[in-house]
Amino acid sequence: GAVYLAERADEQYRKQVAIKLIKRGMDTESVLRHFRNERQILANFDHPNIARLFDAGTTETGLPYFVMEYVEGLTIDQYCDQQALGVNDRLKLFREVCGAVSYAHRHLVIHRDIKRSNILVTAEGVPKLLDFGIAKILQGGNGIEQFATVTGLQLMTPEYASPEQLRGEPVTTATDVYSLGIVLYELLTHRSPYGSSPHTPHELARAITDAEPKKPSTVIPTDTSNPQSAIRTPKLLRGDLDNIVLMALRKEPARRYQSVEQFSEDIRRHLEALPVRARKDTLAYRGAKFIRRNRTATVAAALIFLVLVAGVIATSRQAHLAKVQKTRAEKRFNDVRKLANSVLFDYHDAIKDLPGATAVRDRLVRDGLNYLDSLAEESAGDSGLQRELASAYERVGDVRGEPYGASLGDAAGALNSYEKATRIREAVVTANPRDTEARRDLAASYSRIGIQLQETSEARRGMDYLRKAFAIYAGLAAEHPADLKIREELASSYNSIGTALEAWGDIKTALENHRNALRLREELCAADPANENYRRSLAVTHVNLGRALLLSGDANAALASNGRANALMAALFQANPANAGYRRVLAITYQNDGDYRHLLGDLRGALESFRKKLVLDEQALADDPVNAQAREDFGYTCQRLGFFLGSSGEYAQALSYLEKATGIFEKIVTDAPKSFYQLYQLIIVRGMTAEMRGRLHQPGEALAECARANSLMTRAADDPS
């Protein structure tokens, strides 16, 4: 293609852009396919460090073009040298580039051509990732055309290509990790990992596939009179940075960082003097890092320890005196406690899985919690009451906004309730550290918070909670190997961590966790085949495993795993048609079946599965209109049906489903204006609606929908949160 600098010609306002179009004579079907591929990739991106797409169309002579953000700046190496940036500042700038590549990977796009010239830095110091012309899409859908490789043609920049690219092997996210490793090597050393002398193509290929690059600290220019080289000394790179760069440049993809997030995280840990993944974790290494971070604290540690010991002794004495002096009004206490337990546990749990129970559950939980709140001040030291109070807060959280369950959609309120329950459970375990039930309850509270945080900006903190829960379950399973309940909870913990790892791009470890959960749950079902809870949990694990298999690139295996989940849930729901929980998991299996079949090119099968899901979703919403999860499920189903029908040319029918989806997501966004994910869904639906109206020759309505979508995008961009 050719790229032109352009500015508006109507004098409405001044703005410069870059216009990219196919050169005349180069408009072969293959080239046009790549061009459309790049255009669609950019249309789906919205990231501050990726050049944005503004518009697209076709010239009067029939050549396609698109209009992009004009990035006026220097290549990243030129910028670093012009600004005389030190090592740490270069690393911080590089992490911003990693963030852009990670964003692309989360949208299932591999760049495949990362190099210095494709990373420009503006005068304000903002890096911009350019040129997705040979990017590869890991997953189809949403109107994106699958990337087609031309027979015999390898698309790459050889100096930045990975060994697997040169060998013609499948590329993964690890391919971009390798190219980023080369860019970082050059930023730190001004040298290529393969030496500075000219190479023939054959020599370069041999160096990339066979030769091990030298440590960056050993190839820094020795001319200290040059200010660009004087700011980088071997001492600054020796150790962690050498290991980080060389780990990114390992020949075998499986031995590199498994995601760009891991690569960037190791750089962050190096900047903060923390141990890094790329270096062997020894006691001496961790100790040196700790002392480097905490010199003053280390000197004062002995004095602080003595003060703490004295404080603990004094506090323990006061606690003993308070316990001796404390009395209670036993009769009132026990009466209120009995009433609260009846409302919260007996009545609530009896109706939990009934269709339409969300509003009644909310009332029961609030009333019961009012009773228990009146006893909260008297709960200290009474582990039984503390557990009841914690369970009450957890039920309040579930009703307010339990992820993937029937709730009122109040995620923030749910998190607040879960955190209250966790503080109580931590106090109970502190008082009874060997109490098995108390530790199980605490692990469950950690899991709730961890799962709740996965859909927020605090997903990393959520992962910490999930790992704490897993550590408790693993310890309990080792202590009680015959306890089936603990093994079931350990399996759930494996699934939760696996699902969280998928979002971070660590698909290999996610698969390991889901397979561990599958092994445990198959053993539980074999031990008790009539247990419906075990069979439902096994179905959920097959669903999770299927999703991870899809992300690993094996859509057929994903379809098969999801099919096993569908068979299990269909049998359970047929035997228990009044169970709303069974109905929703069955609906999810139909959703996955439809999405996977679409990726495999079976559009008719995808439509059939989503129509089955639609019946279940409509029933769920009719039974429980206040259930926010049911509304969201119904909206997503209408959106996908609209997309599939539009893809098959049934534009009028597609439009009717998209209008239903628009109404649903409008309501959700109104009720939860801070939910960026829901706002994004509404933008997508309005964009699809505009396309359908255009297909139906309704240009005025199509433009109006585009204007509404643009207004929502502006709102999202202007939101400081």
Structure description:
The protein has helices at 29-43, 76-82, 87-106, 163-166, 173-189, 201-210, 227-230, 234-237, 240-248, 260-271, 283-293, 295-325, 330-351, 358-373, 383-401, 411-431, 436-453, 459-479, 484-504, 507-527, 532-551, 555-575, 580-599, 603-623, 628-647, 651-671, 676-695, 699-718, and strands at residues 2-7, 16-21, 53-58, 64-69, 73-75, 109-110, 119-122, 127-129, 136-137. The protein is mainly α and 721 residues long. It has a 4-stranded antiparallel beta sheet, with helices on one face. It has a 3-stranded antiparallel beta sheet with strand order 5-7-8. A hairpin with a 5-residue loop joins strand 3 and strand 4. Helix 25 runs parallel beside helix 27. The longest helix has 31 residues, at 295-325. Residues 140-153 have low confidence and may be disordered.
Brief summary of the model shown:
With 721 residues, this protein is mainly alpha-helical. The chain has 28 helices and nine strands.
Average per-residue pLDDT, rounded, comes to: 82
Strand line-up across the major sheet: 1-2-4-3
Overall number of strands = 9
Large-scale geometry:
globular
Query: Any low-confidence stretches, pLDDT <50, length ≥5?
Result: 140-153
Please report the distance between the alpha carbons of the first and last residues: 38 Å
Share in helix: 55-70%
SSE map:
Blueprint: E1 2-7, E2 16-21, H1 29-43, E3 53-58, E4 64-69, E5 73-75, H2 76-82, H3 87-106, E6 109-110, E7 119-122, E8 127-129, E9 136-137, H4 163-166, H5 173-189, H6 201-210, H7 227-230, H8 234-237, H9 240-248, H10 260-271, H11 283-293, H12 295-325, H13 330-351, H14 358-373, H15 383-401, H16 411-431, H17 436-453, H18 459-479, H19 484-504, H20 507-527, H21 532-551, H22 555-575, H23 580-599, H24 603-623, H25 628-647, H26 651-671, H27 676-695, H28 699-718
Helix pairs in contact: 3-5, 3-10, 5-9, 9-10, 13-14, 13-15, 14-15, 15-16, 16-17, 17-18, 17-19, 18-19, 19-20, 19-21, 20-21, 21-22, 21-23, 22-23, 23-24, 24-25, 25-26, 25-27, 26-27, 27-28
